Fold:
Amino acid sequence: MPIDFTAIDFETANGHPSSACSVGLARVRDGVVVDRANWLIKPPVKHSQFLSLNIRIHGITPDMVRNAPTWGEQFEDLLGFIGDDVAVAHNASFDMGVIRAACAEAVVPTPRLKYLCSVQVSRKTYDLPSHRLPLSAAAAGYGEFAHHEALADAEACASIIIDSARRHEAADVASLVKLTGVRLNQLKAIPLKL
Structure:
């Protein structure tokens, strides 16, 4: 099955979308995860406070990101890993919101990524009481994983799209979108307020 894409997941220091503190990426080729990357990100000074709730969720502390690259410093690596792939995220509006807000905060151009939400695909594929990542990944046959660890979440997200493509007999992401009736979106910059 020649389905290719890159799954992505962010963790944040607090409720502001530009406060990314970790990213996980899983590159899929022919329906198989073939490459993985993850790293810590130092949130911008203006949004660098780590809330105790967020720390409890993902375990990342201010000390852990003290020497990590900022958004602007790691941005080329992020884009380089994704390349021309469709980016897939579970609840993509959150992850794409992180990219959009972090780019605005760092004053770097927002990439015009094409992206797909695995929650939407899950809803069209599995009959579940909730389409939270652990439940959707379990329905896809993905075993237990460290939920809220960015790379583990990206790989779990990838498993949902891979399994959904198999179940819908989709040859690629475009076919999966068509067969499920979900929308392939494109990331755009935050409009400037005048």
In short: Helices lie at 52-58, 62-65, 71-82, 92-106, 118-125, 133-139, 150-168, 173-180. The CA atoms of residues 14 and 51 lie 5 Å apart.
